[in-house]
Amino acid sequence: MSAKDEAIRLFGTAAPPAPFRILRAGLLEARLEAGNLRYIRYDGHEVLRAVSYIVRDRDWGTLTPVIADLQVEEDGDSFRVVYRGSCNSGDACLTYHVGIEGWADGRLSFSVEATADLDFETNRCGFSVLHPIDGVAGAPVAVEHCDGSVEKTHFPDLIEPWQPFKSIRALTHSPAPHLSATCRMEGDVFEMEDQRNWSDASYKTYVRPLELPWPYSMPAGEANRQAVEVNIVANREETGARARSLQSDTSVHVELGGVLDTRFPRIGLVVAPDEIPAALRYAKRLGEIAPQAILCHFDPAAGHGESALAGFAALQRAFPARYELEYVVACAGELDAEFEILAGQLRSTGFEPASIAVCPSVDRQSTPPGSEWPDCPPLEAIYAAARRAFPHMPLGGGMFSYFTELNRKRPPVELLDFVTHATNPNVHAADDESVMETLETLPHITRSTRAIIGRDRTYRLGPCTIGMRQNPYGSRTFDNPHGERVCMANDDPRQRGRFAAAWTVGYAARIAPAGIERWVPAAFTGPRGVLNEADGSLLPVGEAIASLAGFAHARLIECRASDDRRLAAIAVATKNGPAVLATNLTDRKLKVEFNRPIELEAFQTRRI
Can you tell me the distance from the alpha carbon of 41 to that of 31, in angstroms, rounded to the nearest whole number? Predict the structure, then answer.
């Protein structure tokens, strides 16, 4: 198999990932990638996930800079990087000069001077600093504010909807028991957001408070200077042993324990009105996957009408299952009248959903901290109108977008039979590693959701796909005609490769203990689907989901991998003993050992 064919098999695209270079100065290490720094480590311990200089457009899309005059110098005890970057917004061009330096004593500096030739429109221009969540969530941190005061506090444990810290000048935490790291940010006012809201595995400290207007203009000819300085202090007597011993271990051990009371969720697939013809054409494939639920998306404001409901009814006849209606409430007039129209359409088409979830149309767009909430009837009124129209049907609410929006606008859950939200892994970064890292965040999201809705409320999750079906943070999702790794793209090529199969199994392993009643990991057809629509065959992700559907309702077996960043595994009880679905999340072969005999299905991918 050629390298191109292998890349397509794994990632659905031959487009290569971004190249990078490892910079080292003694025990200090960082990865230089696209002009920014990732995985800043000292003595093998991750100190920061990234330090990046980022320019965003008015839709929060990240502008890709052109890098010129790159020079890298290393001598073992230090490294130095300089380059010139430029990016365009409309007719204006922003040019910035970068200097990066690192020293063996644990110091790191990243400075930028930027100047625009014309007034430059942007939603954000400046540094973004990412702290990882593993070992950091809930841990102590000292926050130095811009007025010089120091607040000794903790990183958030549960995911906070608003900024946990504002007016930040420096942050000091302990990446390991023998390390202390101070990250100082100069040149503007910084604040932090909890990026676990978007399933990013990080806390992000960024420039320019969200309460200030955006987009804004950077004046032509006016230099903007910013800098990030990191200082790591180590207890030399304890340096090194733990990090190096973990890195040298190439095997993963899976420990299976006892049978739990928690059951694996029902598996669903989502179908939108424009996907109905393909869904009907390949309805027999649904029998191979055997999902327990079909989630039907219906939005009158998007032009969906009675013909769409008739299409859902036809699919229901072709593949009997539990059909769920996801209804976007226009809230354009009297609520009772709107729901009565829907009820009449259901009667006339013969579509019989087993439940209905409702969400106001305006709530699918994010309302960032400091912004004015859009006009919307109270959720209590919307839920009451839905109850009057469908008194015998289970009613759900929450968000059809992401946990972020659910966290910011928490519904009156006592009025609902179930609560739902979705996730998407490529809001802020679309490279392979960042997408896989979002799996780390899922237990934080499900735990935080349970804190909002309670332990006893039915919890439904999804759709959860790599491609983005709707963009709450801008006016549109992004087209991806060349099959690249693109943030907020509606069509991600990895959906067609083994990458999506591994990511989906990894997702299942991370959410399984949360007691989720129904999970939708994909669409049936379309760019976020499980079929190769040229011939109707199952994609690797479809094969993985078929296996997951076979686990539905089964009681979980306690299953712990010694390194869940490299291996994801789920175990359920069957009449023949433990059944395990496992996936390799890395680009290396793994030696996997189980503590007892199992029935094993495996999916494998690469992460570059």
Answer: 9
* Residue 596 CB coordination number (10 Å): 10
For residue 183, the Cα-to-chain-centroid distance in whole angstroms is 25
Is pLDDT above 60 for 240? no
The pLDDT of 487-513, averaged and rounded, is 97
The C-alpha torsion from 563 through 567 and 572 to 574, rounded to 10°, is: -120
Number of Cβ within 10 Å of residue 432's Cβ equals 20
The angle subtended at Cα 21 by Cα 188 and Cα 115, nearest 5°, is 30
| Closest to 549 measured CA to CA, from 590, 499, 601, 472 | 601
pLDDT digits (tens, 9 = 90+) for 179-235: 999 999 999 999 999 999 999 999 999 999 988 998 999 999 999 999 999 999 998
The CATH 2.70.98.10 domain(s) of the chain lie at: 3-246
Q: What residues does CATH 3.20.20.80 cover in the chain? A: 265-553
Residue type at 32?
L
Question: What distance in Å separates the CA atoms of residue 546 and residue 587, rounded to the nearest whole number?
Answer: 24
**Which CATH class name applies to 3-246?**
mainly beta
Contact yes or no for 68/84 (Cβ under 8 A): yes
Fold of 265-553: TIM Barrel (3.20.20)
Is the overall model pTM greater than 0.90, yes or no?
yes
450 contact partners, CB below 8 Å, separation of at least 6: 459, 514, 515
* 3-class state of residue 126 by DSSP: strand
Cα–Cα distance for residue pair 164/193, rounded to 1 Å: 6
Q: What is the DSSP string of 376-398?
A: ---HHHHHHHHHHH-TTS-EEEE
Structure token digits, residue 78: 């230090």
pLDDT at 576: 87
Cα 489 to the chain's mean position, in Å?
Answer: 13
Q: In residues, how long is the chain?
A: 608
Buried b or exposed e, range 564-574, using 16+ CB within 10 angstroms = bbbbbbbbbbe
